[in-house]
Amino acid sequence: MYQFDQIIDRRGYSSKWDKPLYPVAQDKPLIPMWIADMDFATPPCVTDAIRQRLEHPTFGYCDTDPRFAQAVVDWARARRGVTDLKPEYVQCQNSTVGAIVAAIKTLTQPGEGVLVHLPNYTGFTYGIADAGRRLVGTPLVRDEQGVFRMDLADMEEKIRAEKIRCLILCSPHNPTGRVWTQQELEQVSELCEKYGVYIISDEVWADFVFAPARQIATALATDYTRSHTIATYGATKTFNLAGLRAAYSIVYDDQLRAAYQKKSAENHYNVPNTLSVAAVIGAYTGGGEYADQLVAYIYENMKAAHEYICREIPQVASYLPEGTYTLWLDFGGTGLSDEEAMKRMGAQGLVMSPASEYNGSGWFRMNMACPRSQVEQALKALKAALA
């Protein structure tokens, strides 16, 4: 059993702990529940792989270890039931956002719009801007059960009005936690095929899906998505490797993959890092049991937090997500602006991500990937902040 209850002092080693998003009281314990990395120890399968690589005394130029792509193929088969992935479809990337920016540049021209569902991951916002393109937002809407859905009519209107050639899809969706169904992906595919739109699918959260939801790789949804999707992944969320910049892309279509690989290489920085490659190989060849226990532990955190908020803080509306390791909390019932809510939480030492980070308002994202005692501490602080 892995010790997810262990408290690790991350001060001096973590942006999450060292640079809170907004001011916090100095006389209160810091409770950082914002940036999406985990407060758990990286498992031995990763650290052992890095240590083994360190035993070799040289670190000169090298190509990506062929075991990297094979490890990705084996992980996709074992964890997600993907049976037709080949090593040649996999490309090592220095970061997920960097991979997305390269994809944007592959599929669009400067000044063009890129369609994104709102609220959106902040990396899409600055990635699109840094690529010299425009973010065109299409809102997710909530149905009668409060489930976030894609507004296909609005998407079509934006595609036509803005002459969209590229959609960024996030599955599982950050920050709402939706996991798109086969039917939803087929509807997106039909719309994209109608207008010749390509898809960039950010699937970095693919390992964090809670039954009965099931993550379906966008590229495998239809024949069209298979030939028109650039998908980005990483071991970074599952194994807490964000500082190692360990990501990869998967592209099935030969011509699209060749164009994308050419664009990815243009900045001359997208080359494999020896220790990052070793980390991913170690994670994907020895981390299956760890991932099972991790996801189960986090879901218990989520259920406990959801129940507490519903019972003790009814002015905040909580919904159990289908994926990711964050809760997307509706603060509309508090009557507070995002700024006032942050001020009150900061006075209790609590830091969460406001919806303004995601082109929205009235919601906060709460990271559940931490020891249960920290979750309990955060919930008490939230209750005190909103009393």
Your description of this structure?
This protein is α/β, with parallel strands linked by helices and 387 residues long. It has two domains: 15-43 and 288-385, Aspartate Aminotransferase, domain 1; 49-286, 3-Layer(aba) Sandwich (Aspartate Aminotransferase, domain 2). It is built from 14 helices and 13 strands. It has helices at 15-18, 44-54, 66-80, 96-107, 122-130, 152-162, 182-195, 223-228, 236-239, 254-264, 274-286, 288-312, 338-347, 372-385; strands at 31-32, 90-93, 113-118, 134-142, 148-150, 166-170, 198-202, 229-234, 247-250, 326-330, 350-351, 353-354, 363-367. The strands form three sheets. It has an eight-stranded mixed sheet, sandwiched between helices. Strands 10-13-12 form a three-stranded antiparallel sheet, with no helix packed on it. The protein is globular and about 60 Å long. The two termini are 38 Å apart. The mean pLDDT is 96.
